[in-house]
Amino acid sequence: MSEDKLPELGKIHPAFFDRVIYPKLGAASRDVVIGPRHGVDYGVIRVGGRYMAISTDPFFVVPSFGFSKAAWFGFHIVFCDVAVSGLEPRYLTIDLNLPPEIKESELEEMWDTVHAEAEKYGISVITGHTARYTGCNYPMVGGATSIAVGGKRDLRSPDRVKKGDRIVITKGPAIETTGLLAVLFPEKFIAAGGESFQKEAAAIFSQMTVMEDCAVARRFRGVHVMHDATECGVWGGLYEMARAGGYGLRVEEEAIPIQSVIRKTADLFRFDPFSAISEGTLIAMVDGKDTDGLIRALKDQGIPAAVVGEVVNAEQGMKIIGRAGERTLEHPKVDPYWTLAAEFSK
């Protein structure tokens, strides 16, 4: 399929945005500091002397998780995208377009969790809409907008990245792919590797957030830009970040941490973990003087992290150094998670 056509599933290809969406963004404004672009999870506007990072996502609820766990995941999907701005997440607007079959007890359980997570992170709900409608279905039950606030010095953005910055990755690849599949299709994991394997893989679910990663990273001025490795995983995230900032990369593939249960999951189900959706994996470009301190601080919070490469000039391109030698980093375009989920659902 041509890259500027719509894919069957998953996010729309960047080429389509370049042709159809990005040339038509409404009225221009000097208050827009960062507008829509590939590789940046948030937009930023200037309001007086303050900066606001804003991101909008579907509110994603999977009943088979249980409504509390489903709401936890939906909340973190929404807020991770502004947490990577470097500003402090503060406000939530939420539109719940619920299917007719949702029960009062289920909605109450879901909202109790949203409230508890918001209180935990100091976030206030400021407006929204809640209704049941014919034609609405799980898991996309509406949308939400997250807002983070701070000063100019707190904002991290692609234009702050410079040659020699180190690439830091937390938790490793395929966090979301492993966590979601193990919870949604436990029988597939049990059949492939036994009950203990399924339980270990399902426990990855709780790692599907970068809220704590970003809270640590905000303490270090040398963290220049951050990105949550969602669609198309680590390779997709690195590619999009370099394209957004106009720089090159040299990535040491063997240096990227990968949790043993995730490696086993990828081997058993035959997918590339580095191309798979990975909500919870933070990628950051960091000044070398802050790299060691950042990694220590992350590990103090129980978050594994490693330096996996460095930023180079754009003319040097995006390169992955692996056991088989050097190759060019390309965008995966198709995330294996969607194929696996469709196959397992049959």
Task: Quickly list its features.
single chain; 346 residues; six-stranded mixed beta sheet; globular; 13 strands; 2 domains; seven-stranded mixed beta sheet; 60s Ribosomal Protein L30, Chain: A; 11 helices; alpha+beta; Phosphoribosyl-aminoimidazole Synthetase, Chain A, domain 2
Describe this structure in words.
With 346 residues, the chain is of the alpha+beta class. The protein has 2 domains: 14-154, PurM-like, N-terminal domain (60s Ribosomal Protein L30, Chain: A, 2-Layer Sandwich); 158-345, Phosphoribosyl-aminoimidazole Synthetase, Chain A, domain 2, CATH 3.90.650. Helices cover 35% and strands 25% of the residues. It is built from 11 helices and 13 strands. The protein has helices at 14-21, 67-83, 104-120, 175-184, 186-193, 195-202, 211-217, 233-245, 260-269, 288-300, 336-345, and strands spanning 32-34, 43-47, 50-60, 88-98, 124-132, 140-150, 166-170, 223-228, 248-252, 282-286, 305-312, 318-322, 325-328. α2 runs parallel beside α3 (104-120), α4 (175-184) packs across α5 (186-193) and α5 (186-193) packs across α6. The two termini are 24 Å apart. The model has no long low-confidence stretch (mean pLDDT 95).
